[in-house]
């Protein structure tokens, strides 16, 4: 599993990177917020570990950027800033875990392993298999295929969750429009969202039948 580590202190960053690699993780590193954003844009990660006070743009801005990309990747904040206002900002932005500096590497291992177990455990009762090879976690709203995470937009996730709610039955386009978006979009928009989900997953991820609509292949 792949982790992005944002930390501007070189020695501190290398120490954490080497430790995480020793316990089996692949680690990509960034020394400033802008570099982290570029790597998030170009790569898929299972966890983001972000320092807050870094050059270029802050860790909080990196979190905002990740959320604008509709990423569901869990985020751990690693910082010496622990007053209640800073913590509130982090959690409001979608932080899943706080780790106060300085910390013991054994604590880092525990917290990273726990996040990975919570979000990616194969025996999770909230994990649903779709089209034989894709696993959808209904808690964190992520789709994985092996070690690859598939990122969907908010409307694509809305569509997926409604089809999951109606699993076993075909759902008409009119029902999707009225139940999900209250006629804010039209049938062409629905078809576009289905097409994009299939492009990101597989052609048989969502099944369709003329006159009946769409059904999730679970």
UniProtKB/TrEMBL annotation:
Keyword Magnesium applies: no
Signal peptide (from-to): none
Keywords per UniProt: DNA-binding, Phosphoprotein, Transcription, Transcription regulation, Two-component regulatory system
Any one of the GO BP annotations: regulation of DNA-templated transcription
SUPFAM superfamilies xref list: C-terminal effector domain of the bipartite response regulators, CheY-like
Pfam family name, one: Trans_reg_C
Family annotation (SMART domains): REC, Trans_reg_C
MF term (GO), any: transcription cis-regulatory region binding
Gene Ontology cellular component annotations, sorted alphabetically: cytosol; protein-DNA complex
Keyword presence, Phosphoprotein: yes
Domain OmpR/PhoB-type: 125-218
Positions carrying 4-aspartylphosphate: 51
Database matches in InterPro entries: CheY-like_superfamily, OmpR/PhoB-type_DNA-bd, Sig_transdc_resp-reg_C-effctor, Sig_transdc_resp-reg_receiver, WalR-like, WH-like_DNA-bd_sf
DNA-binding region: 125-218
Full protein name: Two-component system response regulator
Organism, as annotated: Campylobacter blaseri
């Amino acid at each position: 599993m792949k982790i992005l580590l944002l930390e501007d202190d070189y020695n501190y960053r290398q120490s954490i990177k080497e430790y995480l690699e020793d316990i089996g993780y692949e680690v990509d590193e960034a020394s400033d917020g802008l570099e982290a954003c570029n790597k998030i844009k170009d790569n898929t990660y299972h966890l983001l570990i972000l320092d807050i006070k870094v050059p270029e743009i802050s860790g909080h801005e990196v979190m905002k950027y990740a959320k604008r990309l509709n990423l569901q990747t869990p985020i751990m904040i690693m910082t010496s800033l622990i007053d209640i206002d800073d913590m509130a900002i982090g959690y409001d932005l979608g932080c899943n875990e706080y780790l106060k500096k300085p910390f013991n590497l054994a604590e880092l291992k525990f917290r990273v392993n726990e996040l990975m177990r919570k979000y990616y455990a194969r025996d999770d009762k909230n994990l649903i298999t779709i089209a034989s090879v894709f696993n959808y976690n209904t808690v964190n709203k992520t789709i994985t295929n092996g070690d690859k995470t598939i990122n969907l937009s908010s409307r694509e996730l809305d569509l997926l969750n409604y089809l999951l709610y109606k699993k076993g039955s075909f759902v008409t386009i009119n029902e999707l429009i009225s139940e999900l978006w209250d006629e804010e979009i039209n049938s062409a928009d629905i078809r576009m969202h289905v097409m994009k989900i299939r492009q990101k997953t597989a052609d048989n991820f969502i099944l369709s039948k003329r006159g009946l609509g769409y059904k999730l292949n679970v």
